[in-house]
Specification:
Blueprint: E1 23-31, E2 36-45, E3 50-58, E4 70-71, E5 74-77
Antiparallel strand pairs: 1-2, 2-3, 3-4, 3-5
């Protein structure tokens, strides 16, 4: 069964009574030509005021937080208002020719 995404899915949601609830997102990627893997992960819990997350990149030379290519995890960042309805990314690939 498919679920249709709407504009309401693009903003932070109200918390539930579930003690494990938090708003989060994980975006994984790889660069096969360089044998690199990575992710960007964030979490936000309006009930506790705890936000955090960050990116990580690794290859066969190091897969732990202390020896990977890049790791920048941020715990307990101050929460703030975040309006994500007007975000956009400009890409040269998306530019019209000419």
């Amino acid at each position: 069964m498919a679920t249709e995404l709407t504009a309401a899915d693009e903003i932070f949601h109200s918390p539930t009574d579930d003690p494990d609830w938090c708003e989060s997102g994980w975006f994984g990627f790889s660069i096969p030509q360089r044998n690199i893997n990575g992710f960007v992960y964030y979490f936000h819990d309006v009930r506790t005021g705890v936000c955090g997350g960050g990116p990580a990149l690794w290859d066969p030379s190091g897969e732990e937080v202390y020896d990977c290519l890049f790791y920048d995890w941020r715990w307990r960042q101050p929460p703030s208002e975040l309006a994500v309805t007007g975000l956009g990314v400009t890409s040269p690939a998306a530019a019209p020719p000419g």
